[in-house]
C-alpha cells in the first residue's frame, strides 16, 4: 500500500533550510516557474490557491497576476519565508489530507505536490477541488524524475486526473517536468 510522505520526512527536509530544493538558486526552477506563469490561460485572476507553496518561490511569479493569493504548505519554516517575501499574500499551514479553504478561487496550482500524497488523499483532493471550486482553472506541475517518495510524479498525476471530473491537457513538457491544465467544469 502506498502511503503519503510523513510529517517527519518533511521536518527532516526543512531542518536546516527553508529551501531544500534550491528554488531560489536553481536555473531549472527559475525556468519551470516562468513556464508555469506563461502557461496560465488568463492574464489576471481574482483569487489563486496554491497547494504546496513551500517558501513562496512560485508565488513570486503568480501573486502579481491576481487580486488575492493564498498559499498552503505543511511546514511553517518555508511559510515564514513566503510571508516575509510576499506580505500582500496570505499563507496558511495545512497538512493534507485536510479540508481545503472555502472561497471563490479561479486558479488552483498543484505544483510538484501530488507525489507527496497517497492515492486516497489524491482522490480526496480532486473531489474537493471539483466540488468546491468547479469554475477554477487547475494547473498541475509535475516533476518527472525520481521523487524519492512512495509515488512518482507521472503516477501521482495519473491518479489525480483519474479522480477528477476535469479533463486535463498537457500544455508543456520541459526538461524533467510537465504542466497539465484543466479549465473549470462549468463555464
Q: Report mean pLDDT, rounded to a whole number.
A: 91
List the strand order in the largest sheet.
3-2-1-4-5-7-6
Instruction: Say what oligomer this is.
Output: single chain
The CATH homologous superfamily: Vaccinia Virus protein VP39
Distance between the termini: 38 Å
Shape: globular
Number of discrete domains: 1
Q: Portion of residues in helices?
A: 25-40%
Q: Main beta sheet: strand number and arrangement?
A: 7 strands, mixed
| Tally of DSSP helical segments | 6
CATH class: Alpha Beta
**How large, in whole angstroms, is the Cα Rg?**
15 Å
Please, could you describe this protein's structure?
- This protein has one domain (7-182): Rossmann fold (3-Layer(aba) Sandwich), CATH 3.40.50.
- 39% of the residues are buried.
- The chain has a seven-stranded mixed beta sheet, with helices on both faces.
- The chain has helices at 7-13, 27-39, 59-62, 76-85, 119-132, 153-163, and strands spanning 45-51, 66-73, 90-93, 107-111, 137-143, 169-174, 177-182.
- Helix 5 (119-132) crosses helix 6 (153-163).
- The protein is of the alpha/beta class.
- The termini are far apart.
Amino acid at each position: 500500500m502506498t502511503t503519503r510522505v510523513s510529517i517527519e520526512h518533511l521536518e527532516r527536509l526543512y531542518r536546516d533550510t527553508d529551501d531544500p530544493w534550491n528554488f531560489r538558486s536553481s536555473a531549472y526552477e527559475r525556468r519551470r516557474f516562468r513556464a508555469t506563469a506563461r502557461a496560465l490561460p488568463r492574464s489576471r485572476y481574482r483569487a489563486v490557491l496554491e497547494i504546496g507553496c513551500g517558501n513562496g518561490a512560485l508565488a513570486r511569479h503568480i501573486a502579481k497576476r491576481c487580486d488575492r493569493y493564498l498559499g498552503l504548505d505543511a511546514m511553517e519554516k518555508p511559510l515564514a519565508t513566503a510571508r516575509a517575501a510576499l506580505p500582500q499574500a496570505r499563507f496558511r499551514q495545512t497538512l493534507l489530507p485536510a479540508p481545503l479553504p472555502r472561497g471563490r478561487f479561479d486558479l488552483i496550482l498543484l505544483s510538484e505536490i501530488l507525489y507527496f500524497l497517497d492515492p486516497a488523499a489524491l482522490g480526496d483532493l480532486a473531489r474537493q477541488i471539483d466540488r468546491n471550486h468547479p469554475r477554477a482553472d487547475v494547473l498541475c506541475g509535475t516533476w518527472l524524475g525520481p521523487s524519492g517518495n512512495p509515488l512518482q510524479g507521472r503516477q501521482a498525476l495519473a491518479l489525480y486526473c483519474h479522480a477528477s471530473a476535469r479533463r486535463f491537457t498537457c500544455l508543456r513538457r520541459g526538461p524533467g517536468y510537465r504542466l497539465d491544465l484543466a479549465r473549470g467544469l462549468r463555464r
